[in-house]
Write a structure and sequence with these properties.
globular, TIM Barrel, 8-stranded parallel beta barrel, disordered C terminus, two-stranded antiparallel sheet
Amino acid sequence: MTTERVAEEIEFAYWVPNVSGGLVTSDIEQRTSWDYEYNKKLAQTAENNGFTYALSQVRYEASYGAEFQHESTSFSLALLLATERLKVIAAVHPGLWQPAVLAKLGATADILSGGRFAVNVVSGWFKDEFTHLGEPWLEHDERYRRSAEFLQVLRKIWTEDDVDFRGDFYRIHDFTLKPKPLNTPQRPNPELFQGGNSLAARRNGGRHADWYFSNGKDYDGVTEQLVDVRTEARAHKREVKFGLNGFIIARDTEKEARDTLREIIEKANRPAVEGFRDAVQQAGNSTSSKQGMWADSTFEDLVQYNDGFRTQLIGTPEQIAERIANYRRRGVDLILGGFLHFQEEIEYFGEKVLPLVREIEAADREQAERSGGGSNQILLGV
């Protein structure tokens, strides 16, 4: 089995802990903090340890172990101004943002950061955040139709003048944004990310986004989504990159890593996990195909609220590096990592895991060149 496009080097992102409670809903110790000083230092550590991107979370209402949270776009800009190379992705909700207003904010953030601002369009799973603010709660596929228009409007405003757009959710009339974001051959406008698992999410990602984010998945789950997203993209003469969520537990021995996972689950905050499950599984099950996010997630999966354990980046540096390499061979372009103790574990990852990943990639390139297939024609041995 082969895949047409394999990245020469996989990239890495991390979840910004701008929301309290860490990345697992558990009472296990998590040496992390949602405050700015911690996150400023963490962003600097990440960019010096091989991370290309950071994703600022979005949560508006205190809930499910996330009692406190900093707003994502403003926090992203603060991190951009505290770093030199890191690209920061701000998660936003259509329905709570007007796309032209976000386009203006994004253009300013992009210019101030030298072209490092990006957006992750989140269609929404938390009904209360909409209804408590007096906003309508749309059915699943309608939320994704709105997101599709949101993505289109953002791109048009960032790249065109005198924009007209007449959709079911957004109407733009003769609108010109100046200054526009930075435009370079390497990156013509701020990158747009779309996440999800459902068929509607895959359709949006293929048609409108630069990147598609998936919840945690095993090899077969990743391959299924990649085929769908890239088939949709190519039908519209586009290419889309693929990012995969994974909770990373890298330890000197596999036993240490597995014991850590076991402790996380044993100490799960059951009321918080069950409250989250009740909120999100109606979103996943509301699709006709039952393929929405969290539709088949177990209690243990939801302790890491984006199914990060499923990716199985748990073990020694060698085991994790090989698994990352296998995901890359299947077409994954980026790993979005969560950690228990962010500061020290990102340092450990940069020192112990990342060099092994790069060694495997170099060996793959040499093998491909010897076989005459080129770096994008790698036989999948997983």
